Amino acid sequence: MSNALPGGGTKSQPKAVILLSGGLDSTTILSIAQAEGFECYALSFSYGQRQAVELESAYRVAKAMSVAQHKIAEIDLRMFGGSALTADISVPKGRSSDTMGEGIPVTYVPARNTIFLAYALAWADVIQSNHIFIGVNALDYSGYPDCRPEYIEAFEGMANLATKMGVEGSQRIKIVAPLLHLSKAEIIQQGMLLGVDYTETISCYDPDHRGRACGECDACILRRKGFSDAGVPDPTAYVL
User: Fold this and answer.
1) What pLDDT, on a 0 to 100 scale, did the predictor assign at position 2?
2) pTM of structure
3) Contact 108, 91 (CB under 8 A)
4) Looking only at Cα atoms, what is the longest distance across the chain?
5) Most exposed of 108, 125, 177, 199 (fewest Cβ within 10 Å)?
6) Is residue 125 assigned to a domain?
7) Closest of 73, 43, 75, 47 to residue 61, by C-alpha
């Protein structure tokens, strides 16, 4: 599915593919990429996630921020399951920060970032973009193996071996993860400096049928704490 949107930039602008989930982090990296002068091509995924409302957020964010193009790739990771986001497994609620830091949480979707980055890499190879932005975070995201610096470095190395652009191009493909070492509060503060409107974003793993955040899952707890620590009002509509 492709949603062509108005905007973009001039032909002289470098292009970047942005993994856009509709959440706080991905919206921030889109703003960062635009501030750095990139013409942005946003890529979202309908992968069978229970929080499918995030796709509506992604579309609204992409439209409001006038990306050059917004594509929604349709895949179905429910065929594998193994995650509270893609299978009939309860989303953990009300966990403490210490508990969140123990092991790999059940909200981890097996190989999700690898799959997403592979799609982004294919699009980047076609449009001749050597920058792919991803909003992974190694601090406030607890235990996800595909949010670590060594993972990003390894994928970047593979990307330059596995693509026409990487082999023939004059510039290396770069996997850009500007939020990797920032706290949630620091991410929000940076976004506010760039004029990001977080109203349309959603982070919740288990929103209700009206799209309201549950307020109790790990993502909601981290989001709430981030806004509080940043001293910024949280615009999120929570159930609790």
Assistant:
1) 52
2) 0.92
3) no
4) 53
5) 199
6) yes
7) 43
